[in-house]
Amino acid sequence: MWNFEEFVRAAGVTVDELAAYVAESQAGAVPVIRRRPPGELAERLGLARWIREGGMTAEAYREFLRGYLAEGTRMHHPAYLGHQIAAPDFPAALGDFVHGAANNPMAVYEMGASAATVEFEVLRWMLDTVGFGEAGGGVLTHGGSLANLTALLAARAAAAPGAWTDGVPGDLALLAPASAHYSLSRAAAILGLGERAVMPLDVDGLGRVDVARLPDALERVREAGRRPMALVANACATGTGLYDDLRGIGEFCAAADVWFHVDGAHGASALLAAEHRHLLDGIELADSLIWDAHKMLRTSSLAAAVLTRREGDLDAAFQQRASYLFYGEQGFDLIGRTVECSKAELGLKIFLNLAWRGERGLGEHVARRYATAHRFWELARERPGFECPYEPESNIVCFRYGTGDPVDVRERLMADGAFQLTSAEIGGARHLRVTVMAPATDDKTLEALLDRIAELGNPRIQEGR
């Protein structure tokens, strides 16, 4: 039984410490990242003692939580320019809090009618936004990798209806650009196709699918004795943030009768921003699509949508028997569309962000992050020694400075916790990579980053130390 007085005290501590943590992070006065060795960090947090002895109180919890938060990565920090994970808005955090207490794993409707109904409505909004409308189907999953797997299961069911019971035919192929997210090749292996079944599409120098050469790619597949299970396009590419020509690819797939899958995990949220919606022209032609809320919709991890243009295609992805769960007519159960049975109340987090901010507010968030990335590109181009291989289309910018090793520069930036950013290869060359996720990132942050990179990448400055 819960001790409600203790719960209220501990919840108050949680709110106080998290509020202070986010405020401190947004101000940028502390390191954006810390990377103590696990053994040292476990000792500092007293993990072994707490596990063995228990006995934590609200005040002890306060000290633990303060240390725990201080040693993590601060997503709200202006210098957080690393991975494609949201600086979550507080309504989504409330959704996590509610789920932590109510714990309604609602893939089976009777386990959480309100949570399931909220998910239905969130999915209906997503389907309408994409252009699939009433004919489409959807489900929320724990992350984009699982979403891609689920979408490709639907594609496999369409290409090889007997695969679930008889095994996967050896002639299926997945067509994808090299810039596709790694989860696509992983999904091919999990599905039984094998990585060798992933056949590359021709791309331009920045990794975007070359629509004019799609017939050549399809011919190579057929010459290899295979038939296409699905063709993948990026909206946008994880490494570069660049969008493929969805209309051109979609029209080709429709004419060739090839399943068209769009990985819109990161970039589909641009549908909400009027000035960027054109980047997704043709998305309504997709047979399947994934869209992560925990990237640009400011939802905490994880919440990703799998959407199909025809609802029946998603229902065909799984076939299962379990007398303790499936009683013939499933009604409103979502379990037939997901890997997960005990699925968290993912729709609640998305709904609360929408309920607080609305479509317009979330669209403005996307537009501002895209604008900040474009501003970084402008500032970098004005400085000698900086090279940007493309004008950004999203909130992701890749660049190089001088002859410095991008991997070394990144490690030096991370060492003192002043900045977090990543890197990616373009045309075989390693580039530094900025992903603007935090609302606190401003010109001051961008200028400071450029200053620091120029300092680290200048051999003469390094030799003088």
UniProtKB/TrEMBL annotation:
The Swiss-Prot or TrEMBL record describes its family as follows: Belongs to the group II decarboxylase family.
Tell me which domain of life the UniProt entry assigns to the organism this sequence originates from.
Answer: Bacteria
Q: Which organism is it from?
A: Streptosporangium amethystogenes subsp. fukuiense
Keyword Lyase (UniProt): yes
Q: Which coenzyme or cofactor does it need?
A: pyridoxal 5'-phosphate
Q: Specify the taxonomic lineage.
A: Bacteria, Bacillati, Actinomycetota, Actinomycetes, Streptosporangiales
Q: What is this protein called?
A: Pyridoxal phosphate-dependent decarboxylase family protein
Listed A to Z, the keywords are: Decarboxylase, Lyase, Pyridoxal phosphate
